[in-house]
Amino acid sequence: MVCLGNICRSPLAEGILRTKAEQLNLEIEVDSAGTSNYHIGECPDIRTIRNARNHKIDLSKLKARQFTVKDFDSFDVIMVMDASNYSDVISLARNENDKKKVELILNRVYPNANMSVPDPYFGGEDGFENVFTILNNACEVIVNSLIKK
Ligand code: 4NP
């Protein structure tokens, strides 16, 4: 799961997907990263931690890190939150195989629509709940696609 800062959207997506996978006994490795170096080593935004906690998901032990080219080797699928994350990650791809791994997460819900998960960082608390609803829905589609495999 990749966003810009790795403190709002992608850590929440990581927590939601990991929780759903555990509930279904799906053995997948889930991680998140940011395209920027702005918040390396920091915990998720306090508003994200609080929102996730309201939904029984603990993000308090996560630490932000920056996406690196090695992530193309470590993961089968790289889900990005918005168009700018998409171009930043694609610009690090070494070959077509790397590029094929990168997907806009909302294309799992709205195929080919190329929609972005809104960035809640500069807004109010309701933006965080909105992002939770969007990512919860997307992660439900993702785990269902894994069950059917
Ligand atoms: P995120 O949100 O990409 O969902 O983690 C942001 C976090 C920090 C900044 C921007 C977006 N920032 O400019 O510091």
Molecular structure report:
It is a single chain. The chain has 149 residues and is mainly alpha-helical. The chain has a single domain (2-147), classed as Response regulator (Rossmann fold), CATH 3.40.50. It is built from 6 helices and 4 strands. It has helices at 9-23, 46-54, 71-74, 83-90, 96-100, 125-147; strands at 2-3, 33-34, 78-80, 102-104. The strands form 2 sheets. A two-stranded parallel sheet has the order 1-2. Helix 1 links the parallel strand 1 (2-3) and strand 2. Helix 1 (9-23) packs across helix 6. 4-nitrophenyl phosphate (4NP) is lined by residues 3-9, 38, 119, 121.
Helices and strands in order:
Layout: E1 2-3, H1 9-23, E2 33-34, H2 46-54, H3 71-74, E3 78-80, H4 83-90, H5 96-100, E4 102-104, H6 125-147
Helix pairs in contact: 1-6, 2-6
Bound molecules: 4-nitrophenyl phosphate (4NP).
4-nitrophenyl phosphate (4NP) is lined by residues 3-9, 38, 119, 121.
Output the CATH homologous superfamily: Response regulator
Helix amount? 40-55%
Number of helices: 6
Number of domains: 1
Topology-level CATH name: Rossmann fold
What is the CATH C level class, in words?
Alpha Beta
Could you tell me the strand content as a percent range? 5-15%
